[in-house]
Amino acid sequence: MSFWKSLLGKSEPKRANLDALFSLPSAGITLQAALGFTPTGVGSVCFRAAEGAAFASIRADVTAMLAADGTHVTEHTDEFGFTWLTDRHDPSDLSGLVTELHGVNSTLEAQGFGPGLLCSLVHFRGPTDQRLAMVYLYKQGTFYPFAPNGPQQRDNMVEIQVRDAVSGDLPIEGDMSRWMAVWGAPEL
User: Fold this and answer.
1) Which residue has the higher pLDDT, 108 or 155?
2) CA–CA distances in Å: residue 18 to residues 35, 50, 104, 136, 159
3) DSSP states of 167-186 as a string?
4) Which of the four, 70, 147, 163, 179, has the lowest number of CB atoms within 10 Å?
5) How large is the average pLDDT for residues 28-38?
6) Euclidean distance between CA atoms 1 and 182, whole angstroms
């Protein structure tokens, strides 16, 4: 950042570290060993869709890229206008799922649509069928757990346990006010 920008109070946005997504497979092993959570094979990328032919072409290319691997891909727009691109993968291949989510994020970013990226989710299930998503905040480059346990309710105790279990594997979002509830996420 330049001297003048810092003097005027302008800052450049933090650049996302998409490679942090590749830490999820080791965190998945930790989650399974420590708390009994296993991957479901479902992951999503959430973004604000842009208007125009360029974005439509990129969106079609990303969907085709995922479908070419035999992956089942769906698209859903939530009540807030965000688009969720959901990838269903073999639950035993968390690395493959993460690679595909990374590919979606990096393709959108490389084509200039990075500012529209919100988050990525990878879904897990607990031993008592507890739902859990590890949420990657694109603009922060950090993760946080989201554990819904009913309509518009979340299990904060499970979220804290998960945070503590995976803090050595993932960059965890330290500001809990950024741990947004992602009620509109498909299949969560």
Assistant:
1) 155
2) 26, 21, 10, 9, 22
3) TTTS-B-S-GGG----TT-T
4) 70
5) 97
6) 33
